[in-house]
Design goal:
- This protein has three helices and two strands.
- It is mostly helical.
- It has a two-stranded antiparallel sheet with strand order 1-2.
């Protein structure tokens, strides 16, 4: 229950990604977030949670988007991303 697939859905859409995830077993959408830079958000959250990535935990028979973490750990990582993104935008607008 604490295996989360964390990845962007753009441009494929949520249904395509859920269908892909269900190839490996039961899957349901538990969180949906919006980021203007979907690729950047995905990379940030993945790096923030790398220590919880199934491959980092020794599993070799899975993709790189699977994490053994709680929804709260995901939420915290995404919130961190939003603060970093907001800070970067503020720095750019001051130039």
């Amino acid at each position: 229950p604490n295996i989360l697939k964390i990845g962007k859905t753009y441009p494929d859409g949520i249904e395509d990604r859920l269908s892909e995830a269900r190839r490996w077993g039961r899957a349901e959408l538990v969180e949906q977030r919006f980021a203007r830079d979907a690729v950047g958000a995905e990379k940030y959250v993945h790096s923030k949670l790398m220590h919880l990535n199934l491959r980092s935990l020794g599993h070799t028979d899975c993709g790189v988007e699977l994490f053994e973490c709680t929804e709260q750990e995901f939420n915290d990582a995404f919130t961190d991303y939003l603060f970093v993104e907001k800070d970067n935008e503020a720095k750019i607008s001051k130039k």
